[in-house]
Design a protein that fits this description.
Blueprint (H helix, E strand, L loop, with lengths): L1 H6 L23 E6 L5 H13 L4 E6 L12 H18 L4
Parallel strand pairs: 1-2
Amino acid sequence: TSAEAYTGSHDNKNPLISPVYADYTKGFPPTLITTGTRDLFLSNCVRLYRKMKEEGVEVTIDPWESMWHVWQGSQYPEARQSTKEIGEFLRTHLGNSD
């Protein structure tokens, strides 16, 4: 399977392979998860969002209609808008308004 091609002989529940299995209870920073409604990993993004929220992380999930995995790398207007919003999130949480 494609998952085996990615993980090899490693445990799929290793948090370095799948962040949904990580421990977020020890002061994890505010997090923005961007995804698309056509992203192969949409359900994993939702699972990660729920896990982080349950463990007390300030987390936001931002699903974009009809977008696919890593769509921010495209030249579509939605990609530029999402990238702008990611920058705003980082400036807000890093304390830099420039």
